[in-house]
Structure formats: C-alpha cells, structure tokens
Specification:
Layout: E1 5-7, H1 9-16, H2 22-32, E2 36-38, H3 40-48, H4 53-64, E3 67-68, H5 73-90, H6 97-108, E4 112-114, H7 118-126
Helix pairs in contact: 1-2, 5-6
Length: 133
C-alpha cells in the first residue's frame, strides 16, 4: 500500500465543501488516479458531519468506491497508543487520540498522509509517519 495516500478528515471537510486549497487540489488528483486509501475511523469522521440525507448517500457512494483497509486492527491500535505515549515523553500533546490512530494506520500500511492538522506534523517528528507533499 506504499503508493497509496490516507487523507485526513481535515482535508475531506474542505474538499466536500468545495473549498479550494492545495490539499483539496491534491485530493482531487489522487482520487482521479485511484491513490486514496480509506480507513474505518476516517469513514466514520467524514460521515458523522453530514446533515443532508441526500448528501450523506452521495458521499457514502464516493467513499465506498475507494480502496479500503478494514483488517488487523489490534497491532494498529497498539501502535496508536504507543504514538500517543511517546509523544507525551517527547513533549508533544496530541489533541485528538484519533489522530494517533490515523497516523498508526499510515505507518503500519506504509502509506503517506495528506492533512491540514498540526498533530500529524508533530507525530512525524518522532515516528516514521510520512507526510504527503
């Protein structure tokens, strides 16, 4: 899964609201090249913010069309906990533990992450997390 990119909710929200920025342009390109990898926590985060039923169904259709990873979660959960713990030891307080889980998936699957969230920048300072640029 080395050439695939996990896209954080921070980018998806802007993309779905049609907000133009470098990251949403990159996401559009990645989608066109079938390079986006969806993980369960992002599936949930993206869907839980949608109010309109029509929009909800449309976005489920989009998300269902993406490559997905849904197995072997125990070692990823352990890695996420260790990312959080190590961050604290290094002086980084991760604001959302879900970000540790997303980072753990990225590391475990050797996938880069596209984001607009400072936690991932901090996590990349003390782990092998690859930021997509």
């Amino acid at each position: 899964m080395k050439d695939l990119v996990i896209v954080d909710t921070s980018v998806w929200v802007r993309y779905l609201r049609d907000t133009k920025c470098i990251e949403t342009t990159i996401l559009d390109i990645l989608l066109g090249n079938d390079k986006v990898l969806l993980i369960p926590i992002l599936f949930q985060e993206i869907l839980q913010g949608i109010n309109s039923e029509n929009e909800y169904q449309k976005i489920i259709g989009l998300l269902d069309s993406l490559k997905q990873y849904n197995e072997n979660i125990k070692p990823i959960s352990i890695l996420a906990a260790n990312i959080y713990r190590l961050g604290k030891k290094k002086g980084f307080t991760i604001r959302k533990s879900n970000d540790c889980l997303i980072a753990a998936y990225s590391i475990f699957l050797d996938a880069s992450i596209l984001h607009l969230d400072r936690d991932f920048g901090n996590i990349s300072k003390y782990t092998s997390l690859k930021i997509y640029k």
